[in-house]
Structures are given as C-alpha cells and as structure tokens.
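Sample intake sheet
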Amino acid sequence: MPPPAKYLTGDKEGIREFIDKFDVFLFDCDAKVHPPPKSLLSAHQNHAPNTRETGKQIVFVTNNSTKSRADYKKKLEGMGIPCTVDEVFSSSYSAAIYISRILSLPPEKNKTFILGESGIETELSSESLPYTGGTDPSLRRPITPTDYDAIASGAALDPAVGIVLCGLDFHINYLKLSLGYHYLRRGAVFLATNTDSTLPAAGTFFPGAGATTAASLSAMLGGKQPLALGKPSQAMMDAIEGKFRFERGRACMVGDRVDTDIRFGVEGGLGGTLAVLTGVSTREECEGEGKSVVPMAFVERLGDLRAGWA
C-alpha cells in the first residue's frame, strides 16, 4: 500500500519542499472549482502560482475532447492564464498522435469515423488525417428504414474507414451508433478519447464519454473495450513524455480526481501527485486508507500553493 497522503494546506514549509521536488507540473484542466471561476486553474484567488517565473515547465492536460488545443488556449487566456497551443495536451490530440504516428494503418483504410464533437475533427486535421461522422449535419436525424437496409448491406458505410473514435458527443443518436457499430463489426479499430463516466458541469455531474458513446458500442460488442487515449491511459502519458521530453521522476500531476488524474500520475511513474479538493474527489478518497491509489499530497484549493511558492 502507498504511504498516506500529506495534507499541505497551511503548511508553508511542506509546500515549499513539495514544489522544489519537481521541474514539470502537469495540470488537469477538466475540474470545476466552486465557487467560480470554474476551472482548476483560475486567474483569481484559486489559481496556481506562476510556474514560468520559477523555471518550472507546465503542461495543461485535458480529457475534454469536445474542444481543440486552440480552444483551450483561448479559454485559459480568457481567465488570465497565458499559454501556447503547444502547452495544451488534450485527449483528442492524443488520439490524433496515436492514429498518425503509432497505429499507421494502410492509406486505403486510414479514415476515422468520429462519435464526437469538433475538437476531435480539428486535431485529426492537424495531423492530416481523414475522417467522417462527427459534426456532419446529415447524421443529426432519426434513422429510417432505408438506413437500416443501407447499413446492413454496407452501402451506407465508407470502405476507407478503419477506425471508430469515441468521444463525448452532444448529438449522439441511434443512426450514428448504428454506423459505428457496423464499422466495428467489419474490423475497424475501436478507440476512445477517454472513458470518463461523468462530466462536471453547473455544480453537478452529467454523462461523460465513457457512459455514452463508448459504453453503448462496448455493450453491443459483448463487452469489448476501446483503447482509451486520455487519462489515466498510459498511452497518453507516453505521448506527453515523447513530446515534452521530461524526466518522469521530476514531474508532478495535479488534479481533482483520484480515479483519473492521480491514477494517471501514479501508474505513469511520476515523481509526485497532488490532489485538489475543489472538484470530484473528497478528502476521504485522498487519505484513502487501504486504497491502492492515493496522491502524494493534497490541498483544499490550488491557490494554497502560493504559501510555498514565494
């Protein structure tokens, strides 16, 4: 069992000692802070100290596939947090990197059928990858008897599709699920940007990608699971390390979910993990007596780190 997590809020020396252990901080961008501003990283009283001024490297990591890296850059800058597109690593970008640089399907079978939003489309395009589905307005309608026949015969299926990529899709419907299922039955690779069961929003939770698109197809495939390319998948960690070239022992993952963010860092062999109690996981989960995954340390809010960053 791992050692118990250390509570750092109010412990100035403990915070300074913790920060000094690391050169790289991976910040989760998926959390919600209550009261607003609604992000783990905030330009107001809850935000992280300026890591760039202290010589620390930062990477913003998100499982949200509905937004592109450019969308996140705009969002963070709107909250007063300067960043570049290259400092953002999203699950949709992770999927694009995996498809283009690792999966390497033959050209005649390298198109992706997307169950998701425009963030996935943008990142696939950034790697010059062809796709279909996604935000195509022609698929936002009820299925018809003609569709059943065309899908069953294969006439409605693109022969170039070799991948089905599931993300959070705000316009999921029976027609799109049927197409995805039949592509998979014909041998397409089954991928997911992430398998988060919930989506934090408006102070509560809503269905996440792992409870909608991926879960529906998995059930139809007898429980077959997609390869997930977001947290806590180590495929994402490998991609991040490959891009940013850091020593894992000198890196720390910061997030609010023990089951995704903290597990991501622990299983990735990072030197440290820091949980923030402003989102999903509770103090009891962080203290986690007898549990296999707990953070190295935790704080009430991210702004508590300021005490040791001065």
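Comment: The radius of gyration is 20 Å. The chain has eleven helices and 14 strands.
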